[in-house]
Amino acid sequence: MKKLMMKGVEAIGEGAIRAGCRNYFGYPITPQSELTEYMARRLPEVGGSFLQAESEIAAVNMIYGASSVGKRVMTSTSSPGFSLMQEGISYIACAQLPAVFVNVVRGGPGLGDIQPSQGDYFQATKGGGHGDYRLIVLSPSTVQEATDLTMLAFDMADRYRNPVLIFADGLLGQMMEPVSFEEKEVTYDNSAWALTGAKGRSPRQVTSFNIDPYGLEKMNMELQKKYRQIEANEIRYEEYRTEDADVLIVAHGTVGRIAKSVVKMAREEGIKAGLFRPITLYPFAYEALSNYGEKTKLVLTVEMSSGQMLEDVKLSLCNKTRIEFYGRMAGVVPTPEEVFAYLKSLIGRQ
Amino acid sequence: MAKNHVFVGLYGSGKTEIAINYAMKLKRNFEKVAIVDVDIVSPYFRVRDYQQMIEKAGIVVIAPPKNLSKADLPIITASVAGYLDNPQYTVVLDVGGDERGIVALGYLKEHLINTNVYLVINTKRPFSQKVEQIVQIAQNLEGRCGVRIDFLVNNTNLGSNTDANMIREGEKIVLQASKILNRPVAFTVVMNSIDFPSEISLFHIERYVKNKEELS
């Protein structure tokens, strides 16, 4: 298969195009402007539409419109921009529309900085906007996985009529690696609900509004039923050298990669370490992770945040093992050496 | 040999890597070598991110002031022009990617005397895979900054997945573009670990600009 050297954000863009995305609306923000730029360049080549909106708020509402007519559509942004999109995402989730969002997370809170971070985990997995809704959240750890998960995101969005978020960090977005693309036929059928003009059929409605509380509660119940299905079918995670591990590191995305190096370093020194890397952040792999409660002496969660996924790790393990945390914030990327040193200090090794 | 050496190209083509290696090579023959970070486009993987390592080799690094080095601002340090003019210094310029980044070079145009300008091409990058695309890149960049490109550089690579065949294919493409543009190919870039017999001159490099994870 032909390979190309691509930045993470370019690979996400190409993955989207190969998944049949022909509409992109977005507003540039570092460190993901190359994705906006990539779509601006590539979409006209494949007969698609690119529009640079006047703001993230405009972009998310363009997504709302384009998805309501059944088209595959995507936008991308970075942390402060993603905050601006939350109202629209809540509307899209309630209206049960498929759409793909990309948040290349940078240091926060506030204006923050432009360095890599995972500090938007709560926002991504616990709501973000108002109301009882969920995004499917995918966290890639390599450039290849970023492209593969983007293609998967479009299929999931259509299958569940739900927004899907690619949760990347600035480092994954900017780093370059060889990527290959699977030749895949794009098939999706939104004809059952999309607004395509009511010729020869009764009119349809796409809405996130119901003035009758019982009616709105019914809409909510439908959403909840869907989320239970997603939780039953879509949990994804990677286990690395965990069979005999008594020390388990839990980390996602770029940090998952760093943690993999830590596992290798630990194994070389005779420490039985393993890695559990959640790929779907929602739905989270509570059950799979809970199995390590009795098997391990220590679970170390590592994040580029103050400990957000840590709360889900604790929920999984219910105090059945010792749970510790190592985190860097604000755009500082932990090195394998510093994580390993911390791990050793926890188990009393030099 | 020219006094100043300028590397331009699309972002991700490998300019920073080559500029650092080129400065290291020049340092073996010249006492005073400076490398200038005029990248006003990329947020990560810039010369300034490797400043300590380069300075250790005795090379002067000219980059935005420390307190602004991580800022999302198009900063060109005022002292750049001085180094370009100073006959005692051999200077390497790393110019940020594509049509927007190269505007910085236009600003320095009157200081580019006795200067070679190299267009760096990785034929494994998006929008750089075909002869016509490379010709277009050269014309666009020259049009934006008003500075003539003197040489092409073949930097075809897939990182650690690079092999000799791939470099050879890239060389063919770059040589064809060179004919159309009527600018010679200065060299083909080869990582030190790869054995590659080329028809044109080779430039062996170490990989300094690494992804964080590759370090591990």
Can you walk through the features of this model?
The complex is a heterodimer of chains A (350) and B (216). Chain A has two domains: 4-233, Rossmann fold, CATH 3.40.50; 237-346, Rossmann fold (3-Layer(aba) Sandwich). Helices cover 42% and strands 20% of the residues of chain A. Chain A contains 13 helices and 14 strands. Chain A has helices at 8-18, 33-45, 56-68, 79-94, 121-125, 143-160, 170-174, 213-233, 253-268, 286-290, 292-295, 309-317, 336-346, and strands spanning 3-7, 23-26, 49-52, 73-77, 99-105, 136-138, 163-169, 176-180, 237-240, 247-250, 273-278, 280-282, 298-303, 322-327. In chain A, the strands form three sheets. In chain A, strands 3-2-4-5-7-6-12 form a seven-stranded mixed beta sheet, sandwiched between helices. In chain A, strands 9-11-10-13-14 form a five-stranded mixed beta sheet, with helices on both faces. In chain A, strands 1-8 form a two-stranded antiparallel ribbon. The mean pLDDT of chain A is 96. Helix content of chain B is 32%, strand content 19%. Chain B has an eight-stranded parallel beta sheet with strand order 3-2-4-1-5-6-7-8, sandwiched between helices. Chain B is an alpha/beta fold. Chain B is globular. In chain B, helix 6 (131-145) packs across helix 7. Chain B has helices at 15-29, 51-56, 80-85, 98-101, 103-107, 131-145, 164-181, and strands at 4-8, 33-38, 60-62, 90-95, 115-121, 151-154, 185-191, 202-205. Chain B has one domain (4-215): P-loop containing nucleotide triphosphate hydrolases (Rossmann fold), CATH 3.40.50.300. The chains are: A alpha/beta (350), B alpha/beta (216). The A-B interface holds A 3-7, 10, 14, 30-31, 34, 38, 41, 113-115, 170-171, 174-178, 254, 257-258, 260-261, 264, 333, 335-336 and B 11-12, 42-45, 70, 72, 122, 124-127, 129, 157-159, 161, 211-213, 215-216.
